[in-house]
Design goal:
Elements: E1 7-9, E2 15-19, H1 24-28, E3 35-41, E4 44-49, E5 52-58, E6 66-67, E7 74-77, E8 80-82
Antiparallel strand pairs: 1-7, 2-3, 2-8, 3-4, 4-5, 6-7
Length: 84
């Protein structure tokens, strides 16, 4: 049985917690399928572990962030936004 996907709209500067996808970058950094905090940057995404930046920023797509075709704003699925 497949889980229902809940869309979460994002803004630049938002922080959220989600399970990282099996992208090439996440697999290389050994965070694929792990719950991580992510900050949405204008040109990428910064992952955090224990409230500290983890490695270098990666692209939105590698972090499981998509771009709305109409608004051009970022969104993801099944994430929990966090206050900074």
């Amino acid at each position: 049985m497949q889980q229902e996907q809940e869309r979460v709209d994002l803004e630049i500067g938002d922080h959220f917690v989600a399970t990282m996808p099996w992208s090439e970058a996440c697999a290389h950094m050994q965070v694929a399928d792990r719950v991580m905090e992510v900050e949405v940057l204008a040109n990428g995404a910064q992952l955090f572990r224990d409230s500290k930046p983890y490695s270098f920023p990666i692209t939105w797509g590698e972090a499981g962030i998509y771009t709305d075709s109409t608004t051009k704003k970022p969104y993801t699925y099944n994430a929990e936004k966090r206050a900074v």
